[in-house]
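Q: Convert this sequence to structure tokens.
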Amino acid sequence: MTNRGIFLDRDGVINQAKVIDGKPYPPVSIEELKLIPRVKKALDLFKKNNFTLVVVSNQPDVARGITKLITVEQINDHLKELLPIDLFITCYHDNSDNCLCRKPLPGMLFSAAKKLGLSLNESFMIGDRWRDVGAGKSAGCKTFFIDYGYNEKQPYSPDYKVSSLYEASILINKDI
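A:
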């Protein structure tokens, strides 16, 4: 049996993003962190079906000096306590840093696949922004776009468009 992964964006997929003028923003503290309804149920279903769960998250506010690195790590640690997530990989760079990990580049997915022995073409990327879908496509994963109607660039041809992580979990687990 191959090792299959579910790659998840963090903000807007696992926890609620704060939407201002149609654009999503991450929570600025643990106190602001709110799980999206039925996220635990979705992740438990993935685990029951032997998926490895990996959060891959761009957090450029660290490079921009808006959020402290320790705050992002505290939020990730808190989520790991609440949810059955196997690994968090976070890109703290901004666009101008030209790193290989910032989505839509697939560096975080490649890194996780190598570290955990995941088969990318049997894995899924689930996100709420065009960068998530782009990273998943570039890595060879099937992609799910959670469409919240943000006022920003839309993803190019996700494999599936859904309204929640829970809906994606039902579709993925139905097909296995």
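Residues 69-82 form the longest helix (14 residues).
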